[in-house]
Amino acid sequence: AIRKIIAREILDSRGNPTVEVDIFTDKGFGRAAVPSGASTGTHEALEMRDGDKSRFMGKGVLKAVENVGKISSTLIGMDVRKQREIDMLMLEMDGTDNKSNLGANAILGVSMAVAKAAADSLNVPLYRYLGGSNSFSLPVPTLNVLNGGKHAGNDLAIQEFMIQPVGAETFKEAIQMGAETYHALGKYLQESYGASSANVGFEGGYAPKMEKTTEAMDALMIAIDRAGYSEEDIKIGLDAAASEFFDGENYKLDGEVMTPEELTAFYIELVNNYPILSIEDPFHEESFEDFENLTGELWETIIVGDDLFVTNPERIAKGIECGAANGLLLKVNQIGTLSEAIDAATLATRNGFSLFVSHRSAETEDTTIADLAVALGADMIKTGAPARGERTAKYNQLLRIEEELGDAAEYVRL
Ligand code: PGA
Ligand code: ZN
């Protein structure tokens, strides 16, 4: 049973406060910390900030910490293994659609810490607790090696340029391929754009002074080649995060103003010229129709909804109905409980979607999403560059899980 719950304000990787929760049971302990986005979707659950300008520029989370206290008085004495009941109880306590009463950051901190405390009490790894005895598959890491958009101080409109080592035999090999390519890219950028071009953005990817999408794509291709890999070994994933360069009518990128039709043609051309496996948020977050068109045109490419779906089963259901995408980006803090995030994943994968479990641009040392990706049998995990502690924490956890699974481990084949 749950004996004690403690919450505190800690720092995330952007230097802003976030919520950490500790849960003690008779037999176990669980600790979880909540991530935070920069290019957040309008329909995400509410991240509660104090707004008190005298602390952390208003970004304090003491109210959310206090709300964990309120939640805690209800949960003390409950069986920590009752994840769904606990999550639903918190939804009830909150009583709003977007968790604005207690804050999704308060609720999620508890939800994840409950799962970890339960796994610890039962003495099983978190991935097996969440996914069952048949959790054996390791996701393809989609490594964000070059940053633009809101995550970097350059002129690239597209937010993320990711490498996907699909040709690896194991997760461990995939990480090696990714790290080698990351370093080859850093070296190439420094040679061609000067020393400062290897400075990094929010997710550890390089943030060179570039303006054009194709410039970034060409740099990636050169890096993959220099690292000794081919187009079969390593694919490319993009996250346009297009809401960020949409002006209400058109899209501003690469020094041009594009209509949705022109942007569609732009993506098709990119897919024809580069080994692109996935494109996330190619259009703004309400544009189900433009998504649908592109998904129809590029049926061999995974079109992923992030801001479009915000890990929300209702929005995902709408997307399934109109064929707006064939991939789901799953971010636990967009929805606010582990149970609802798992519901979102189930809904999407039952309808043939690829599943990408994802971090946020501000992260902590918490590794819950690594275990969640294995538990859900996710196709990919997106958790930044193969560098920076808050990013490598997740990749390193997956290395441990693969080791623990031993011969039973299987690297996802896409
Ligand atoms: P965010 O970016 O965490 O800043 O929202 C990640 C993403 O868009 O996938
Ligand atoms: Zn995204």
Automatic annotation (TrEMBL):
EC class: lyase
Annotated ranges, domain Enolase C-terminal TIM barrel: 135-414
Pfam families: Enolase_C, Enolase_N
Active-site residues, Swiss-Prot/TrEMBL: E203 (proton donor), K331 (proton acceptor)
Listed pathway(s): Carbohydrate degradation; glycolysis; pyruvate from D-glyceraldehyde 3-phosphate: step 4/5
Keyword Magnesium: yes
Keyword line: Cytoplasm, Glycolysis, Lyase, Magnesium, Metal-binding, Secreted
Cofactor requirement: Mg(2+)
Binding note for cofactor: Mg(2+) is required for catalysis and for stabilizing the dimer. Binds a second Mg(2+) ion via substrate during catalysis.
Localization terms from the record: Cytoplasm; Secreted; Cell surface
Major site of localization recorded for this protein: cytoplasm
Protein name: Enolase
Species this protein is from: Methanolapillus ohkumae
Gene this protein is translated from: eno
